[in-house]
Amino acid sequence: MAKDLARYARRQRKNGVILGLSMAATGVGLFFLGAILYALLTEGLAAIRPSLFTQMTPAPGSDGGLLNAIYGSAIMTLVGTVVGTPIGILVGTYIAEYSRNNRLGQAIQFINDVLLSAPSIIVGLFVYQLMVVPMGHFSGWAGSTTLAILVIPVVTRTTVDMLVLVPNALREAAAALGTPKWKITVSVCYRAARQGMLTGIMLAVARISGETAPLLFTVLSNQFWSTDMSHSIANLPVVISNFALSPYPDWQRLAWGGALLITVTILILNITARTLASLGGAKQ
Amino acid sequence: MVDIPSSDSSPRLRGPQHLFDGLFRGATLFFGLFILLILGGVAISLVVGSSDAFKAFGLNFLVSDTWNPATDKFGALVPIYGTLMTSVIAMIVGIPLSFGVAVFITELCPPMLKRPLSIAIELLAGIPSIIYGIWGLFVFAPFMQATVQPFLIHTIGRVPVIGALFSGPPFGIGILTAGLILAIMVLPFISSIMRDVFETVPAMLRESAYGLGCTTWEVVWRVVLPYTKVGVTGGIMLGLGRAMGETMAVTFVIGNAHRITTSLMAPGTTISSALANEFTEASGSLYQSSLIALGLILFVITFIVLAAAKYMLIRMQRQAGN
User: Fold this and answer.
1) How far is the alpha carbon of A280 from chain B, nearest alpha carbon, in Å?
2) Reported ipTM
3) Residue A165 sits at the chain B interface (C-beta within 8 Å)
4) Could you tell me the pTM of the whole model?
């Protein structure tokens, strides 16, 4: 009896210790989230002032802002999203509506999921050889192409996930009215799934707006104001990277400012997307 | 699902609708194939781009540790070593942490906190690589140099054999720091997949185990984990794939030194950081071709890891569906 009790106590102790450790692990995760946000806020807020949004990237030692980089990032993200989103939706439609149980559809979904986690730097290398080498110089278009390629798998994935959730009764009801299949997909399925699809697009924008590595090979950066997409164009991630690695305190401060800007944008996109998704979930 | 036939199989639908149906289906199929084309294009462009390097060095490229732009001699061993080493550290630290987070969220957490906690951890995944990079460079590396590394050198560093891994001066930046940052970065990926697969365990299995008098830990270790081991492995491999391809965060804190040292605290390089650091400055076609060859190696390794991960997760899904 005493032996049994001792054993019971030992099991309880083990349980307590391990569960305590798992709580600690969660604490560690949250601690790092907090530490990164804290550093961004303390270092970045000092750089947030009107000139950040009204002036160009400066030469070392002089004052300036990030206007050209903000503009370049915005335009490339916009083009990448506008090009990548419809493609992603169509691919998702093919997988979910036209080939749910055939091999080609499964193969496409499998490759799409691999692309979803594939290193973005590889995509940058691909576009470098596809566009930068033939054109002879870095360009905003090459950067946008890279971002579009990164958008496609995210949008495809959420589109498939959402279309699969659309009840078949809706499709059958529409078909019974004589609606052609393309119209069922566009007016019934898309409409039923639009909240989730919107979430996917926002997550995709969040993902590409911080991408840095592939842009190093495709756009590089530009010190000056430029709206010419066929040449190098300034963009936030690459400017942040260059400025952070520079020895000049002014540049480093701007890098923190830019980092805060990107992170806040991405966190807002992420949180909005998740809230949207959970609102949609609550409704069903 | 039911297959609603396209109108081409229903003779009564004629005219523009018939055409639209064909066009729409055609467009979705076209872009579906486009996905396969992208992957094929990536593979072909890397093979073509790296052909010069493989012609010049043969398979010796994979095992040579020379990296000398001045004499045009290149080998991939050092970056491969760096990529594997940082990923191994990331896994050793990241897997238990992710497991802990997943266990906490599925088994312990009060229901009210479940959602906010999950979101908070997933926000870590949303923070872009470059932010981890500058945080690592300005905050984490100095902290490692001042506190963690001296501590390691004076404790584990004195143990024979293993001690060699933790010897030498505390640089702050280096393989260990890069590995730890990767561990933080893969934590949300691995833990969210673990949490998802843990939740597929039928409540009856769990309750039966509790009914027999198991403690929470025993339920997790003996019931939940065996039931979900395929999915858990898939999640870990997905994290591994991410860690190996991660670029900016590593580039900022690895130190970019082309040499292999026993000490984990010494600077090193990885495939992705070598690409990010050197690609745009690579003069000479052989130099550039060697860098693309590094890219090809990374592509092959991550493709295998990610495909295996995906395969396991699909198997898990089927199991959960049954």
Assistant:
1) 15
2) 0.91
3) no
4) 0.91
